[in-house]
Amino acid sequence: MSVDSLNTDALAWLVLRAVYAWMFLYPAYGLIKDWDSTVQTTALLFKWRPDLFAFGSLLLMIFGAVAILFGIYGQFAAIGFIGFNLGGAVLHYRLARLLKQTHLSKESTAADQDALEGAISLGIVGHVTSAEKNFVLTAVAFFFAIKGTGPLSLGAGLGVFSVGVL
Fold this sequence. Notes:
There is one protein chain. The protein is built from five helices and no strands. By secondary structure, it is mostly helical. The longest helix has 38 residues, at 110-147. The radius of gyration is 20 Å and the shape is elongated. The model has no long low-confidence stretch (mean pLDDT 86).
């Protein structure tokens, strides 16, 4: 392996880790800022103590993203993200289903009905594509769980997946 390929490999790993971490760090502030909506949305998945699950999810988003970004216990964070992302896919499918149930009163104008139908269609497409994005994020988390966080990680690969079991 040449020095140039080693540098590009390390750069590729670093970009993957940075983008993956950003996918979770970026929305965290908004979730904190509108905590009531965050808990209400979490309640679509967890009826019992959605506030607790929302808080745990937020902690995973922040600390898990930092762990993967810096390569410290990244494999453990990745395992957490596998479940988190699959739950996110289920959540987006449920939100799309809820949008399908939205309607205006019979007294609303045809223009309002058409506008709502257009908004519902766009919302459904947005939620379905977000669910599909979560499947991609799950696959990347699975990759990190199996392979570790790669070159330039601050910690060595840890966990059952790094000892040659698989």
